[in-house]
Amino acid sequence: MKKIVLIGRSESGKTTLTQALKGEKISYHKTQYVNYFDVIIDTPGEYAETKSLGAALALYTYEADIVGLLIAATEPYSLFPPCVTCMANREVIGIITKVDHPKADAAQAERWLRLSGCQKIFRVNSKNGEGVSDILEYLREDGDVMPWEKETLEKERA
Question: Minimal CA–CA distance to 141: which of 8, 38, 47, 55?
Fold first, then answer.
């Protein structure tokens, strides 16, 4: 799997998405520091919200194959400036979270991500798994066996 670093405002859904991508039970957990997993780097929102901590995010992008900019569909503004993706020397994708929320405006979030420079955008509901498999498939590399394929693969081997 390609490694992804998740960047976004506090409460944009980075940790919940991380749990969904890992197939874990969803539970609220405030990220206090950078969580560095096998293929996911989950960053605190404060790093993206604070100028003095923002430089640390640049360092973590060097550890990833893909940068994921997250915007919740409920956000009143975009944290990301226009054309910011050109600042990364990695592929940058957009991820819209909380698409199931009654006050969600996923179309507005997509416009903001496109303005920031994201060409590939995913819409996800981490709680019910909608869109999560699309991200996993996008991160897939040759030879990777996805969790939903393991049972079929085991039957073929038997």
Answer: 38
Strand 4-8 to strand 35-36: parallel, antiparallel, or no bridges (unpaired)?
unpaired
Q: How far apart are CA 127 and CA 15, in angstroms?
A: 12
Q: Dump pLDDT digits (tens) for 89-132.
A: 899 999 999 999 999 999 999 999 999 999 999 999 998 999 99
For residue 50, is pLDDT > 70?
Answer: yes
Q: Distance (Å, rounded) from C-alpha 100 to C-alpha 54? A: 29
Alpha helices in the chain (DSSP H): 14-21, 45-49, 51-61, 106-116, 132-139, 147-157
pTM: 0.87
Length of the chain: 158
